[in-house]
Amino acid sequence: MLLINEVDVRDWLFRIINENFGRDLRSMKDDQGEMNLFGLHIHLSARDMVYMFYLIEKKFDIMLNEDDVDNDRFYTINGLIDIITSKLI
Fold first, then answer.
1. Is residue 29 part of a domain?
2. 26 in a domain, yes or no?
3. How far is CA 69 from CA 24, 28, 81, in A?
4. DSSP label at residue 45
5. What's phi and psi for 76, nearest 5 deg?
6. Tens digit of pLDDT at every position of the chain (89 positions)
7. What Rg, from alpha-carbon coordinates, does the chain have?
8. 4 and 68 in contact (C-beta within 8 Å)?
9. Which 3 state secondary structure label does DSSP give 76?
């Protein structure tokens, strides 16, 4: 199991979103971590989120389940960080 902290997860998410979906989130302020990934500012598609799901499972060697995806937190940067780090403990 990987020993990784929230900053590492956040940096990885920012890099993956930039590389795969062309959204540069590096200038995102801390309070913007609660913005919906489907919203106007980030504007990922459902297909993008399915790919993110795959990338997250592969990178962190974790299994995301239906409860994770049904959780509104799955659709924000801070929520994804929380879900990922909780599965790495």
1. no
2. no
3. 23, 23, 13
4. -
5. -130, 155
6. 445 789 899 999 999 999 999 998 877 776 678 889 999 888 999 999 999 999 999 999 999 999 999 999 999 999 999 999 999 87
7. 12
8. no
9. strand
